[in-house]
Amino acid sequence: MTWIGESEDESIERAIAKALDRYGKVYRKIGDVRATRVNVETAVETILADGHKETKNVAAPGDYIVTGPGGEEYVVKPKDFVARYEPMPGTTDGYLACGEIIAVRNPLERPLDFVASWGKVQSGAADCMIADMFDPVTRKRAGRPYIIGRAEFEETYTPVSPARWRR
Description:
Largest sheet: 6 strands, antiparallel
Number of domains: 1
Strand content: 35-45%
Shape: globular
Number of helices: 4
Radius of gyration: 16 Å
Distance between the termini: 31 Å
């Protein structure tokens, strides 16, 4: 439902925020990723395992291009990268995920597009996951939701015990 005077984008943002706040569960990433810090502006297109184009982005000098276990590539800003990944011993480009996210299944239950925090449109399928970075100390989410493809989510995330993050 779109409120009077509200755009479709605002309606989607409201539905996502409501779903994350009400029904979101905390997860942590499992496994490892590969990452390269870029020196020059680099275009990145995130293509999921099923061939769905999720988003386009541009990595600025100093940003990281991360390659997930399914081969999908995405851009992470240096501050977020340091908070979300730590070097994997014995490699030059391997990293282990750390940190947590809060996530919920797409509350609209239909394909959706919205402008992600990096300013580009991100697209998701009806069964995609909506995620946001989560701070276990403050128990708050960052307020910058993004899409994770369903197969990629199931392959790379595991639930965190609710006793650790609920009041």
